[in-house]
Amino acid sequence: MLKFDQVLHARLGSLKEAVTVWSEAVSKLEKAKEKADTGLRGKADKADWKGENAGVTQAFVRKTAKEFGDALTEATSIRNILRDAESEFTAAKSELEKLVEQAPGKGIRIDQEGVVGYLIHPDRRSKDYDGPKPEQADFDAMRSAIKAAVDRANNADDVASRALRGLVGTDKNNFSGTSYDSLAAASKAQDAEDAHAAYELYKKGDEATPAEIDRLNALFKANQKDPYFAEKFALEVGPKGSMEYWADMGDPSDGSRLGVDHRDKLKELQTNWSLTLATATHSTSPEMEQWKADVIKAGSEPVQTRGTSPYGFQVMSNLMRVGDYDDKFLKDYGNGLVVTERKMTHDGRLPADRAWHAMGGMPSHLNWQGGDLGNDPMIGFMEGLGHNPKASTDFFNSSIDVTPENTRDNKKLDPFDYFSKDREWPEELNDKGDRTKEPGYNALGHALESATTGHPYDAEAEGLKDVRTKENAEVMQKVVERYGSDPKYMHQQPGIDDSLGRMGAAYIDEFNRSLEQESESSMDAMPGSPFGAGKNESGKPQFGEEFESTLLFNRGDAVSFLGTVTQSETGHAQLSTAQTIYTTSVMDDVAPKPGSGPARELDLTDAKTTLRIGAETHAIFDQSRMAQIDQQYAIDSEEHKKAVSRTTDWVKFGVGAAVAGGVAVATGGAGTVLVPLAAETVGGAVTTLIGMEADDIAEKYHEDELLKKKSDDLKDESLETGKRNALMPGQAYARAPGWSGDDSNYLEEELTKYVKDSRGHVRDDSLPDPYDEKKDGKVT
């Protein structure tokens, strides 16, 4: 694997010379082949040899003449491979040289290992510095360009080395005769060779040895994002072939030990198989279009193994849990899956588990990723949507014709309503052997996360940007209306609360706009608000012109949703984290810049409004969580005290917070939370906030001391700590670099004094009632 410095400093003279030498060899062999064809073989063909000469010598001469042709073919192929490799290496090297040359002019430094950083760090710049000030987007673009150039060189190196080894071959007495007119042709040939090798291993089914499963995984990994390999493999195996193979792997009755002794290998195989088929679905060739149609058609048909007979949809959905499947295919697949389920349940009159859970015989083990066995096909499909934001957004904003064979009845189903409210999700066996609905609702949450944020739910934090669109916001409006309308929807859907918390965090800017409005029902944004409507990259309103002055959610719906989600410990931590980061970013954006003048003479109106709304919002969170703890646990019980003590754990978020691309990603104690930022360039307040430490009531006492306290006393202390933590954005602003000591002290005192009582502004009757499990009669 070539590294940055090896590509940058590569000496390509020898390679270029080799191309010249092999070109000369090709010219000489062309002449030798011509002489062999017209002379040696020509005369042998015309000779009227008898006896031994006819049987041996003539054949030998012809074979010798053919070798000149094979030698020419092989030499030409080697020349072509070396020529194209040299061209790719030169292009990659030139690109890196250009990037290194341009970097200082952009205020960027690239070290010898290709690591990107500031040419002059902001902390070391002089007061009169007027040089370039690179932003996160500039660093991201530079890293991306460096990676692309190095990847280009590595790809050429891998293909060329494999092609050259193949051309030389293992037969010392014969030339290979293999013809490659380019490096691209060699790459394609290698893909086809690997796809066929994978097919041969596929044919062994669950009789394959662990070593053969390793080999199959290695072939998938080596060609993970290669479209040609993926298509060749998908077509060679066929839709039913994939289903039959995976169903056979999940049949516990046929004596195979793979699922018993090598679950890790099957988990890896499921991931790799899924990624390969996902890549294949992006092909629009007639063959792959037919493949996609056949997958959906086979979904309603049983796949028979020795001891099981799952439906095609059940099998295929488990091969969708990983990877970015084609948008249209995912939507068509989901429509077909829903239509099939509605028919099998007599239009919903029977529960979903009657359709998908085997009434007799052994259940199939179709999912090796953990969490469930994979019998409910909606789980795998939802995970597929969770990795494909566009398909997920389109799916939840669409309607499904549940009787496509009848063009007159216009019988439609709303996918969002169906999955979030109407469908009775089946219980699944989890890794502990317990029956629970958590796997289904967890997957639904993942799908809704991608639909509302525009990112795969498990996207890598590095390089994330705020990419929300009007269509994403439309799904979020549905989420707020559904889950804010009654706490039962969240509490009766175990596993969805963390996703709701992340969705709320991703729209914390819009919730702040709503909470500034005094009216419960008004959809008009406050004029002159410090919480401006989000803008896209072209500077236009992010969710459409109408939302320049209109809210996504009214205040009443915002309070209901946020209050419900923060009844959950996870939701409380995630939203508290998001609110603190967002408030601080607004301070960076609208408050006077540090050092812009004597603090006592500055207009702090927008700063105070920002902090007031932030403090009120934290009050909603804390009161909601405390009310739910009181409802859930007996006062003064050990569980109650521990739950109260954990309400301030969210302040640990700063350990893992990273800022980039218009968002902050917190990965500390609150879990991964994506927070949109108000400031285009994050300033000193956010940087200061991330570096601050806060008191944590959970760390004030050892467990034995904690349990000696009364619950009411602990609640008072925890709420007081929460109140102080709500002041952190104002403190971070006052302590940001640029203020004098006197200014910093004045600001911290002034802003703290102003917002200390803001939490009392929240009206208790605005908050949703805590969920009463006993009253509802359902166990979560």
State the end-to-end distance.
Answer: 50 Å
The fraction of residues assigned to DSSP E strands is: under 5%
How are strands sequenced across the largest beta sheet?
A: 7-8-9
CA-atom Rg in angstroms: 33 Å
Quote the average pLDDT. 88
In terms of structural class, how would the helical and strand content be classed? Answer: mainly alpha
- Helix content, binned percent: 55-70%
- Number of distinct helices: 32
> What would you call the shape?
globular
Low-pLDDT residue intervals, each spanning 5 or more residues: none
E-strand count: 9
The largest sheet is: 3 strands, antiparallel
Features:
single chain; 32 helices; two-stranded antiparallel sheet; 3-stranded antiparallel sheet; mainly alpha; globular; 57% helix; 780 residues
Can you describe this structure?
The protein is mainly alpha-helical and 780 residues long. A 3-stranded antiparallel β-sheet has the order 7-8-9. Strands 1-2 form a two-stranded antiparallel sheet. The chain has a two-stranded antiparallel ribbon with strand order 3-4. A hairpin with a 2-residue loop joins β7 and β8 (663-666). α24 packs antiparallel against α27, α27 packs across α30 and α30 runs antiparallel to α31.
Give the SSE layout.
Layout: H1 4-8, H2 13-46, H3 52-102, E1 108-110, E2 116-118, H4 136-168, H5 183-202, H6 210-222, H7 227-237, H8 239-249, H9 258-261, H10 263-280, H11 286-298, H12 312-317, H13 327-344, H14 353-356, H15 377-386, H16 389-396, E3 400-401, E4 412-413, H17 415-422, E5 428-429, E6 435-436, H18 438-453, H19 470-485, H20 488-491, H21 497-506, H22 508-516, H23 555-565, H24 569-590, H25 605-632, H26 638-645, E7 658-660, E8 663-666, E9 673-676, H27 684-691, H28 703-708, H29 711-726, H30 728-735, H31 741-755, H32 773-776
Antiparallel strand pairs: 1-2, 3-4, 5-6, 7-8, 8-9
Helix pairs in contact: 2-3, 3-4, 4-5, 5-6, 5-7, 6-10, 7-10, 11-13, 13-16, 15-18, 16-18, 18-19, 18-21, 19-23, 21-24, 22-23, 23-25, 24-25, 24-27, 24-30, 25-29, 26-29, 27-30, 30-31
